[in-house]
Specification:
The chain contains 13 helices and 9 strands. By secondary structure, it is α/β, with parallel strands linked by helices. Strands 1, 2, 3, 4, 5, 6, 7, 8 and 9 form a 9-stranded mixed β-sheet that branches. Helix 8 crosses helix 12 and helix 8 runs parallel beside helix 13. The chain is globular and about 65 Å long.
């Protein structure tokens, strides 16, 4: 078992750190809001720390699950100088590939391994230990980190060198954006056509239209309930990162850009904290105006 530190105890990080404790690792946690770290320590075996330095000192592996590039850069900037030689820093935040490459270089200069390892599976995946993890970094670093990440993963893929994990996560979000919009339009069409949504889903979900989104979100979408997953605010952050990368590499993402603007409309409706399936609310709101 390893000595690990976990930084960032949001809806994802809190249960992820819990799985590390349940797996028998020696866990220290830190969160910007200190009360959250102490709440965690009240539920799991482990130590709440009041500073990043306290959490990471002597840790074999330091894991982060934060908000955006500036958060990652700030916390990593404190953590790296306090980490021991030979330790590994794993970033589970969905962030830019450019940041991942920068941190890989900075960490290597201090003889510390770095892995960009964004996750997919949402809050439910984190709570159930069923996340998919997309990793970028050196083979030797991946080999060290994989057994630790296995505590909360159903699939771990080494996608390539530093930045490859973040780039793969961008592909994931680009695909999801189109899937959710397609499902929203299909359900909206079914309702306007006077069809029973449950009957329609029972028919189309057995064929080529089937998807995780359809299976898990169609009913809540029809019921107008949007408290079951990844928030619109965070999806827009992820799409922003993907669109910025596309401007650099020349990829054309017209559908992703359009769906991003649809999510901006959801935010304007007050739905920034609704889950991503709320795209259907935009269509139905148009019906009422």
């Amino acid at each position: 078992m390893a000595s690990v530190a976990f930084m960032g105890l949001g809806v994802m990080g809190f249960p992820m750190a819990g799985h590390l404790s349940k797996a028998g690792h020696v866990v220290r946690v830190w969160n910007r809001t200190a009360a959250k770290a102490h709440d965690w320590a009240g539920q799991y075996q482990g130590q709440a720390c009041d500073s990043v330095e306290e959490a990471v000192t002597d840790a074999d592996c330091v894991l982060m699950c934060l908000g955006d590039d500036p958060d990652v850069r700030a916390v990593a900037g404190i953590a790296l100088p306090a980490m021991k030689t030979g330790a590994v820093l794993v970033d589970h935040t969905t962030a830019s590939a450019e940041l991942a490459r920068d941190l890989h270089k900075i960490a290597n200069e201090s003889e510390i391994g770095f892995l960009d390892a964004p996750v997919s599976g949402g809050q439910a995946g984190a709570e159930n230990g069923q996340l998919s993890i997309m990793c970028g970094g050196d083979d030797s670093v991946f080999a060290k980190a994989e057994p630790i990440m296995d505590a909360y993963a159903k699939a771990i893929v080494h996608a390539g060198p530093a930045g490859a994990g973040q780039l793969t996560k961008m592909v994931n979000q680009i695909c999801i954006a189109g899937l959710v919009q397609g499902l929203a339009e299909g359900l909206h069409f079914a309702k306007r056509a006077g069809l029973d949504p449950e009957t329609v889903i029972s028919a189309v979900s057995k064929g080529a239209a089937q998807s995780w989104q359809m299976e898990n979100r169609w009913r809540t979408m029809v019921d107008g309930k949007f408290d079951f997953g990844f928030a619109v605010n965070w999806m827009r952050k992820d799409l922003r990162i993907a669109l910025e990368e596309a401007r650099t590499n020349g990829a054309r993402l017209p559908a992703a850009a359009l769906v991003d603007q649809f999510y901006a409309e959801i935010e304007a409706m007050g739905g920034g904290r609704w889950d991503t399936s709320s795209l259907i609310a935009r269509l139905e709101n148009a019906d009422r105006t």
